[in-house]
Structure formats: C-alpha cells, structure tokens
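Lecture notes, unit on binding sites. The following record was shown on slide 14. It pairs a sequence with zinc ion.
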Amino acid sequence: MLRSAGRRSGGGAGGRNERVPGSLDGVSPLLQKTLIAAAAVVAFAVVVGVVFGARPTSPRVVDSDRLRAAVTTEAVTAHLQALQAIADAHNGNRAAGTTGYAASMDYVQAQLEQAGYQTRRQQFSYDRPDFTRATLQRTMPTRTDYVVMRDHRPLAQSGAGSVTAPVTAIDLNLGRDRSSTSGCEASDFTGFPRGNIALVQRGTCQFEAKVDHAVAAGASGVVVLNQGDDPSRRGLFAGTLGSEATVPVVATTFDLGAEWAAAPGTTLTLAVEATVTRVTTENLLADTPSGADQRTVVVGAHLDGVVEGPGINDNASGVGAVLETAVRFSELGIQPHNRVRFAFWGGEEDGLHGSAHYVAQLDDAGRRGTARYLNLDMVGSPNPVASVYGDGEPDSEWPAGSGEIQTVLTDFLTSQGVTPQTVSFRASDHASFLAAEIPVGGLFTGADDGADPCYHQACDRLETIDRDMLGLMADAAAHATLTFAQAPG
Ligand SMILES: [Zn+2]
C-alpha cells in the first residue's frame, strides 16, 4: 500500500504521495523490500488501533507543576470578581453589544498587555433576533391568556411565527422523581400528529436536541416545560438553542405544562415576533511570541454573557482560567514548541458568532496550522459535574486528535482524584472548529440537571461559584495547554 501502490491506483488516500514522484528511484531492491515491509507493519498497527478502538496515544506527559502552582484559584477568582464588578456597573450584564461587554474586553486586554502580550481585536457583526412580542393563549378546552416573562418566554434562538394547534405531550414524567429524557430520542415522536405543538419536558439532553426531533416529526411549535424535579426547576426559566429554530419555541413552568398535559384537547396559540438588531462586537486574541505557527494551539472561552445576569459561571469562569493561564505562561517565560493563541470570543450566547467568525476567517494555511482547539465554558458550577468533551464513540466522528485532548484532560483530572464524565454537546465555541475538522476538546462542570440552578439568570454571580472546582479546572486547562504547546510536531 505504499505510495507506489497509491500511484498505480491513481490517487485516493495516497494523495500526498502523488506530490513527491519517484522518490524511491535508485534505492536497492533489498532496501525497497524492507521499506515496504516496514510500512505494511505500520499500516496494520493503525488498522488494529481503529478496529479495537485503541486509546489514542497521548502526547508526551509534561511537568506542569510550576505553571499550575502559578495559576492559583485566588488569581483566577480575582478575574471573576473584576467581571462581576463590571456587570454590576453596567446594568447587571456583560451581553454582546453592551457597555458591560466593552468593559470586559478592556479588562482582559489590559491584563494580557500587562503580561507582555500583543493583543488583537477581531471585529464582526451579526443579526440578533430580539423578541418584541411573545404571546401564549390557551384556546381549548377553555380560553386563557398567559403573561409573558411570568408564564412563558421564548428560548433564545426561537424561530418567529404564530401557530395555533393542539398540544401533544412527549414522553413526560410528571410522577415522583420527574427524571426526564423527554424528546431526547427521535422515537419519542413516533405517531406524532404533524402540525401539532410538541410539549416536551426539560432534562438530560440539550433543548436543541428536543427541538430538532420535534421539528423533524412535523411540530409547528415547541413548548418546553421546566423539569419540576427540584424547587429551583419548577418556575419559568431562560434557555438557549445552539442555532436558530425554524418554529416558535417557548419555555413555561412545570405546573402550567403539567396542567396542559392533563387536559385532553388542549389547544394553544403560540406567537413569537422578533425584530432584528444588528450587533457589532469583537473577539480578543493574544499569541505567545514564540512557537511554531503551523501547529497553533488555540485555547478559548467566550467573554460575553446573557442579558439576564452577570454571567459569572457562564462564562467568566472559563475566561478567568484561560486568562490566568496566559498571564502565568508569559510570567514564567515558557518557550512553547507550538504557538499558543489565547482567544476570548464575543457573541457566543447569541449563537456562537465570535468563534464562527474566527474560523470562517481562517484561510487554508490557517486551518491546517490550527493543531487543536481547547474550549472552556462554565467551569465553576455550584453543584459541579467535572466533564471533559468527547463523543466517547470508538469510531469517533470528531476529528482525529480530539481523543488525545480528551485523554490528557481525563488523565490529569483522574490523577487529581476526580473521574470526569464525557460530554458531547456542540452548543459552545468548539462547534465551529469541529465543523472545520479541527481537533477539539474542552472542560465543563454542568448547566442543566441542577448543576447550576442560576444558569442564564441574574443569580449567576460570584457567590454561587464552586471555587475548588474552578481551581481544579484552571489547573487542568493549564496542564493541557502546556502539554499541547510542547507536543512534538
Ligand atoms: Zn457559555
């Protein structure tokens, strides 16, 4: 199968081989045979690895003690305190396009420049649908008008439109434990009457997955009732979809959802209107002055928060960990083998816009030169579930190399006495890198299922942060950043 084989077969997998014609000319027949045999052995080993799902080889383990000792929980927390103060001084939030976000950018930029980095702002714009009107009315069996922001509210990225249709409950668990996988499987929609409004229950999988399954089954709208398994998960909640839905999607309380599910023939009118606001905002980038740029390691976290609150767990926690790693990297004079790019994304909460813009701006060399992307989003949850990105599948769909990041993070956390879970969601800034076939990994400590009852709310403040977990996650990020910065290439 050696390259010569490739040549004869006229391309395919051996493409790169095609570009170096005749390199075996003048080599003794005996040596040629030896080389062919050696290559066959290597190929066989690779096949075995793929078939038996061998653990991806992890890069050389580096000694990250000094760096981790320098990345203290106190220093990381100080960044969260600064971003909390910024939100408090700017209408309680740091959302994209607001003065709170602009002040957050200034803060992070000043920290990086103080540490000796040259920074670069990357401006971009996008259209954000702002919900101007959302109405919810029950027309059958009796007429009731519900109050927006008390009884219902659109999910961020809801589609616009107005529908009136009967409600069909999807695999609800209104019983005692109220554990819910409602809408998480396409099979939950078997027999779903096309055109009806799907009533799904919060829990287990992302809102986006539930909505995707509902739309695929022909739902004209989706109502997501709160899970009800905990007092903090009964009332109205704020949620976001990873990308814009094609139908109206609204959240409601557990009690209202349960009431509709119990009343046969319930018919609702859902109307969501949105005006489009043109948002112009920025990413902030800072590169190590040395290291091979054709093997760049990008380490990023989104800097914007939702408009509802200061966004401290989501995502000042990730920003604090990435920023402090960058500062100490420079302070310790670490000379990376591979360039490290520290990235702070804007517009994530509105649809992953900053990271999508960054990836879209990369030319071919820039894509090929991006060896890995490490994402931190929500790493200080009050009821934390230490998690590492990965799709956990032996025949992973994720780009080759993603498994290595998963292994390095998992091994590190395990060495610290914490066995992480694996999460495979795409509702964060690694999604665009994944789509560009760039190996990705990341850290997460939970949003749903009680991990962070203040997720996307005004109470997402410094007081609710689990500082021990934040410190551990910052250590994991520092360790992985150093590991891949020094990975041979
Ligand atoms: Zn986030």
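Take-home: The chain has 14 helices and 14 strands.
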